[in-house]
Write the structure tokens for this entry.
Amino acid sequence: MPTALARRTRADAPPGPKRDAILRAAIDVFAEHGYFNAQVADVARVAGVAAGTVYLYFRSKDDLLISIFERYMRDALADVRALESAVADPRERLRRLSRAHLARIGRDRNLAVVFQVELRQSTKFMERFSSTLLRDYLGLIRDAIADGQRAGMFRTDIKATVAAKIFFGALDEMATNWILSRRRYALEADADTVVELFLNGARAR
């Protein structure tokens, strides 16, 4: 449990190498042992710090998991917002978003396991995450689809919000399958197929 000193100090602890090392250790420990089986002491040991040091930066094991999610999603949101301002064509925006999404997950298998599997073991976590940064991420996908509808590129009889969830769901399934597969391959290679099916369907040409 955090000491009184840790509780007083944690809010003032600056971001830096030690906090990054603890987060990295949490990713690796949660991926290897599972979030619910892992202990803060395990994270501290892998990070090479005392258990009390973890509480200078994070309130609890839950806070570690939340911080992993928030860092990942903020990076993802920054990438998508950059695309939104740099790429006018909604189709190309979705293509680049798809590639960036799968490339980001494919770079770090342990982070992928935490994000795709461990974060989803609790309804409490899922409800919290779905109402915050993940909602914003889906909103940016929705914006690209809505732009395409206004430009006459996409059909308008489907709500942009529903289409965004379908698009994200396809990417999400590709990522989960990559984690579970015994075959090692570049996850990003699936991106164009997802976009092609989303834009044109599976109908033979």
Observations:
- The radius of gyration is 19 Å.
- The chain has a mean pLDDT of 89.
